[in-house]
Amino acid sequence: MLEKTRFIVITGSIMSGLGKGIVTSAIAKLLQSRGYRVVPIKFDGYLNVDCGTMNPFRHGEVFVLDDGREVDMDFGTYERFLNQSMTGMSSITGGSLFQRIIEKERKGEYLGRDVQFVPHLTDEIKRRFTEVAE
Length: 134
Prior knowledge:
single chain; mainly alpha
């Protein structure tokens, strides 16, 4: 299945309110209407573990998913446009990536190697995207 998976990347820095969520939702809806299975993934580079502690004046209100995960308001747009419930797996923050890497390091999963951005952080990013895609 993963060999048929395709990713469309929409970028626009960390500035909120530019319309990245609406563009993502619109493209996803067009693909969905053509019969494709679509799962939006949002990657925020912030070091917050989730969006629940982010400043709502700078970042917008928090949206709570059915699984209880606190995410960016764009997820409300995704759910409305696509008429499907999203899960917290689709929300990736820099903080959650670092948290997972530190947990793995503390458990000895890196076998005493130095933990570095490359390959450990990049591998964790790829793992999370693959996990959502599967």
